Amino acid sequence: MSDNIIQVRGLKKHYFGGEVKALDGVNTDIRRGEVVVIIGPSGSGKSTLLRSLNLLELPTDGQILFNDVDITDKKVNINIHRQKMGMVFQHFNLFVNMNILKNMTIAPTQLLKKNKKEAEEKARALLKRVGLEDRADAYPSQLSGGQKQRVAIVRALCMEPEVMLFDEPTSALDPEMVGEVLEVMKSLAKEGMTMVVVTHEMGFAKEVADRVIFMDEGKILEEGTPEDIFDNPKSERLQNFLAKVL
Amino acid sequence: MEALKLWFIETFTDLKDTFILCFIDDDRWKWLVEGFGKSIIITLGAIAIGLVCGIALAAIRSSYDKNEESLKLRGGFGYRALKFCNGIAKLYITVIRGIPVVVQLMIWYFVILVAQDNDTLIAVVAFGFNSAAYVAEIFRGGIMSIDNGQFEAGRSLGFNYIQTMIHIVIPQTVKATLPTLLNEVIALLKETSVAGYVAITDLTKAGDLIRGRTFEAFMPLAAVAIIYLFTVVVLTKVFSIIERRLRRNER
Questions:
Q1: pLDDT tens-digit map of B4-37
Q2: Cβ atoms < 10 Å from Cβ of B216
Q3: pLDDT at B247 over 80
Q4: Is the ipTM of this complex over 0.90?
């Protein structure tokens, strides 16, 4: 098995027969245990790239290799691979008709065939870790945004994924709730979880990222360590972008 | 004062006589009971067909709507098969919704099932396949109204399309569509009143027979109207109990 958990090869995503190029030939590898943060202006294709990694967006062209398997191959059963790729959304997307415990146990019991007790024990342990052990029986509508996002993270963790994908996890949160979610993400990173994060939180990128990718117009314009990107930006566009967001 | 009293007694005696003539003589109340029974049987049978076929149609239509882009990209047999089924479903819904139900009933009775002796069965089939088109659109609307994020969250955990539908989307859809579904049931119950067109003695027809026999119009029509009204009130109550029970765990 290669050192790279995900390999992206010549990834393209075109709309309207090529008129709009959301992704225009993206190549990158993500190593096991690496924390990669993707930044860029809106419409640069960073969310599209992230959502392509588990095929929520189907690429027009190119390959994505997950554990050396080309998941863009039509013959590959994507559902098996998605079980190992946790995803956290901007709008949480907790199942509104289920309580928190059920949100977290439905996938492990249905897909991994874990028994209910075992799944609930694991769910409660994870809830405790993010300080929400007393909310197991609550429904999503009773939780604050920050609490919902913490639940969304541990819901994904219940499937014991090999990589976690974060799609602007703090963008829909009130400012005072951003910190609690970032804390959870930082502790995950510290444990060695492979993470790909699309975010506008430059502080998080500087502190946690092993590598930062700057995207613009569907392409990777620059990538490197946080020091490379934030302290020595080479391209004018990255300099402009950083001048605006920092 | 005395005149008013007399008028009261006269009117009351008249009403009593008419009542006896309409419902008691010849046990005519039994006609209404039997007619009501037939109306209920037709309605229940039609709902059963409507639900089963409607869900199937809605599944095809919404699967196509939801997966059109990804299937097109992947191409192959699956896409063409679903596109074909979607076309058929659309055509079916258009045809059914474009023809008055009484005309459909006559087509079933006089043309398609002309060899079938069981009139009630014909009515069940006619109203059932009619209702399916409406139920299909109710469910499709319900499925499409569920936030796509719910669907994506299910897929991202590794559920396949059908599992996502069964475990996550459909339970939410049922709750969302219940009031509209009740509307369809009420409409259906009342639509069955045209069954008399093809000589089925449903509730309306029973009332009509009493009118023909007794030459009294008000009493049997009032009885028929009250029975329909009462049934709809009961249905509404039952549905609101179900709805409350489904929503209880969601505050």
A1: 898 888 888 888 888 888 788 888 899 999 999 9
A2: 16
A3: no
A4: yes
User: pLDDT tens-digit profile of A5-16?
Assistant: 999 999 999 988
Q: Contact, B32 vs B206, CB < 8 A?
A: yes
- Are B124 and B41 within 8 A, CB to CB? yes
Q: What distance in Å separates residue B179's CA from the closest CA in chain A?
A: 18
CA separation for the pair B14, B8 (Å, rounded): 10
Closest CA to B181 of B247, B90, B242: B242
- What is the value of pTM for the model shown? 0.84
B149–A110: do the CB atoms touch at under 8 Å?
no
Longest dimension (CA), chain B: 90
Cβ contact, residue pair B73, A83, below 8 Å: no
Which of these CATH numbers, 1.10.3720.10, 3.40.50.720, 3.10.20.90, 3.90.1150.10, describes B31-250? 1.10.3720.10
d(CA A15, CA A1): 34
> How far is A56 from A52, CA to CA, in rounded Å?
6
Q: Please say whether the beta carbons of A165 and A87 come within 8 A.
A: yes
Instruction: Compute the distance between CA of residue A111 and CA of residue A83 in angstroms, rounded to an integer.
Output: 8
